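quick one
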Amino acid sequence: MKNMRENRRSHILAIPYPVQGHISPMLQFCRRLDSKGVKASLAITNHIFNTLNPKSDGHVHLLTISDGFDDGGFSEAESIAAYLASLEATGSHALGDIIEQYAGTDNPITCVVYDSFFPWCLNVAKKYGILGASFFTQTCGVNYVYYLAHHGKLSMPVSSPLIDIPGLPPLEIGDLPSFVGSPESYPDYVELVLKQNSNLDQTDFVLVNTVYELEDKVIDAMAKECPLLTIGPTVPSIYVDNRISYDREYGLSLYHHDPTTTNWLSTKPPRSVVYVSFGSMANLSNEQMEELAWGLKQSDCHFLWVVRASEEGKLPKGFANEVAAKGLIVRWSPQLEVLSSEVIGCFFTHCGWNSTLEALAMGVPMIGMPQWTDQPMHAKLVEAVWRVGVRVNVNKEGLVRREEIAGRIIEVMEGEKRKEFIDNAQMWKGLVKTAMSQDGSSDRNIDEFVSKISSSMK
Ligand code: UDP
Ligand code: 7WV
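structure w/ 2-bromobenzoic acid:
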């Protein structure tokens, strides 16, 4: 009996947009499904597969698809539009091929869990008569803003100084995703994020990597429009519910950790270090890097600063040596280990959603310095809704000056509100942990998803 069921396990195929911030949450969701008895396969591009040459984690099965640029990926394409078009054309074929390959085996694909950037995956799934689930890697607030814009209920660019969105505090233009205030900046990405909504009324599931308790009102609003399930945080289990013993770190990392990080941290007092990172994609201007460097120095706090290899040339000459007594600069950090360390006092972050959610899950106060896309809205939520920190002010030239950087660090590390930020962060940490634990909001939603895809199997 058990064997029969084992053989007829439902099988999901997950397809992330090929960047770190989308691959990690979808791989993590696959691990979670595997822990609940679902077979989970993750399709990554040939380029990423060949770059990483990954070993299987023994739980999630890895497959490859082509984006049409097998040698260099996105950097090989002549434009954003050309890349997205190729990904859709080549990816649709590759997805069909994979579905056909498994049809008639013991593990036919039951459901395609596709990145919400790929609404075309639903057409392929429906062609083969299987289920589709759109997987959002951004907050529900951001998704809902794009939903309203797609349906003409929010004009782009926005015209009024204060925007009222059900479930969110009144927002200024700068608090919305960057594409809403200046759609001309990235027209192809604007189209991408709006088109996420083109067939949400036909998809079988909308899965969002967020936590109900973090965004309850806006989730209630958007859940009226589509079959929405919150399933986050997709942070490795050891840091949250601790029910999946091997799930201790992200797999498929496109960068290597600097091994000196943990030793350096271990010599520092509790809550004394500012952790600074802008994620995997941000490019700061030379002048902004310089302001940040001198601002960190001026704060006089210990700091651990992630400067990716491609950004290193923008550091002031000799800076790393000059600040060696207080600061360590690494090319990439084991961020989960860092954020969970008791020596971290705050996270100076670009507010990418993975980083923000990781900090909420670990109970770490934040200073937001958003760059583009969804980040400005997350910085707003950090300051105004979750109240776990502040957002830096940008001056008329678009720069965050060293005095502002040092001042906000001191405010969060030593100021009057320090305790409030820490207490709030600890409260969210508890709620996030409960959500992912047995019978919590995310756990129940994942169980509902598993039970529905299983009962679709005949
Ligand atoms: N990250 C890391 N080490 C670093 C910097 C980032 O492991 O030095 C991880 C981080 O934990 C997060 C991801 O990279 O999971 C970045 O995703 P996020 O959504 O925050 O930003 P993006 O890279 O998409 O801008
Ligand atoms: C990669 C490319 C484009 C975008 C994103 C990532 C994101 O914001 O997640 Br719009």
